[in-house]
Amino acid sequence: MQANLSFGLGENSDEIMRKSAVPIRKSTVSTALMYDASRIATGVEPVFEFKDDRYGVLFPQATSIEFMSDSEEGARVRNIEVTFKVPAPPHDIKDQAALSAYDDAIYRYVMDVIARINRAGWKRFIAADSPRLSGLD
């Protein structure tokens, strides 16, 4: 799959928006600049490539890519949030075969994303004040 949205931290947000192959919606609050390339905002589900000379990653298709910058800092990207388009769950949750196939598909999907991140050289980091991952208890 080819990326149709590709940028990294520190790049100029308005320049990303101008060059993008997908539509991006821009909004502002004071000096905060927010950019939204999502199915809800634009009708497009982009494929995002995080550009970095050393740790670049091509991610699978997303339902949403949002990024932020600040006009006082030269509109440079400082935060990127990607929501992945995961396989759809079965319509009938009582169908054990469909549920099992869904579980397998989700597992393969997550393992693929983790493999992409690992191949790019990223290391897992858990902050000392947050020693566990968020989720259901």
Please describe what this structure looks like:
The chain has helices at 13-19, 39-42, 96-119, and strands at 5-7, 25-29, 32-38, 47-50, 57-70, 79-84. By secondary structure, the chain is an alpha+beta fold. Strands 1, 2, 3, 4, 5 and 6 form a 6-stranded mixed β-sheet that branches. A hairpin with a 2-residue loop joins β2 (25-29) and β3. It starts with a strand and ends in an 18-residue tail after the last helix. The mean pLDDT is 89.
Quick structural summary:
This protein is α+β, with helices and mostly antiparallel strands.
Topology of helices and strands:
Layout: E1 5-7, H1 13-19, E2 25-29, E3 32-38, H2 39-42, E4 47-50, E5 57-70, E6 79-84, H3 96-119
Parallel strand pairs: 1-4
Antiparallel strand pairs: 2-3, 3-5, 4-5, 5-6
Q: What integer is the average pLDDT? A: 89
Number of strands: 6
Number of helices: 3
Low-confidence stretches: none
Described by strand count, sense and barrel closure, the largest sheet is:
6 strands, mixed
Query: H/E order of the elements?
Result: EHEEHEEEH
C-alpha end-to-end distance: 35 Å
Overall shape: it is globular
- Coarse structural class: alpha+beta
What is the share of helical residues? 25-40%
Q: Hey, roughly how much beta strand do the residues contain?
A: 25-35%
Query: What is the alpha-carbon Rg in Å?
Result: 17 Å
